Amino acid sequence: DVDGDGWGNNADYDDDGDGIADPDDDDDDGDGYSDADEGDPDNAGNCVGDGGNSLTQTITPDDMDGDLICDYLDTDRDGDGTDNTGDAFEDDACADTDTDGDGMPDSIVAGCTTTLTEDSDDDAAAGAAWSISTSSYSTLDVEIYVGGVLQCTLSTYYDTDGPCEISSGDIEVYVDYCSWYCGYYGDSTDTFISVSYGGSLVETLTQCSYSTYSSCNWYWLYPGTLTTLLESSYAVVWSDASETECGTDPVDSSDTPTDTDGDGLCDDIQDSDNDNDGFSNADEADCGESNSNTSDADYPTDTDADGVCDGLDDDDDGDGTVDTDDAFPL
């Protein structure tokens, strides 16, 4: 007796007492969900898997946002204004965007109760990739491991091989076999392996330090572990706050701050020594030698190695006598 009028539904011509006879009423129990959507114990409704019973108001379909459209049929089931197809968190009205796909929302609606944690780095790469390639005139067998598990093998015979792509992790390069010559026709040493991280070249390894015909097995390179490369040594994570301060877009992973020395501080704005050569940007400009503050190979002259360039040092040779009184200041 849905409407409590003393007449059971099977004898009541208007089950919900809304003034519309049941044959003409598309919501017999008056719960706001149509009979076609709810269905009943004998007939499945349109709200597949959401429950509901058109014969009683006490059983209604799942409706997360309470908009009287069951979740199965609702194109925005959490009711946050973003369609399910474009909502990274379609079951949580507190967030809808996850730029970097790491499972953490770019932002959370103020005052909204949720188990989600706001992302402090919206455009972080979802996993930068290592790329290892061989480029050598020697015969090489190289194995690449992550956590002791073989990922791939590179082999060469007067040729190149690769790249070996690894999505993430700390890698170990192991030389299983190496023979033939370090130099090619007496030229400078050949590149043995090239390693890139996130598309940027981070290290090149050469066969030996000699330009000679001698077998590379005779020198420092021999079968065994060649090097271990740590992901954390190359990955710089830029928080949204840092990107905003540095003037780049915190939701565009291709727009990152310039960081010459890779110390996690953007040049000029956060970093007082862009190239990490020991001389501040200001000093490199003031030392009078037109040094570049973005190259650690181009630094001011510092005769006594006291960290003060000669142009600013009143005792260049550090002998205790100021240059103006020193017959031999250098």
UniProtKB/TrEMBL annotation:
Residues 247-257 have a biased composition (Low complexity). Residues 1-61, 244-330 are annotated as: Disordered. Residues 12-41, 258-276, 299-330 have a biased composition (Acidic residues). Signal peptide: none annotated. This is Uncharacterized protein. It comes from marine metagenome.
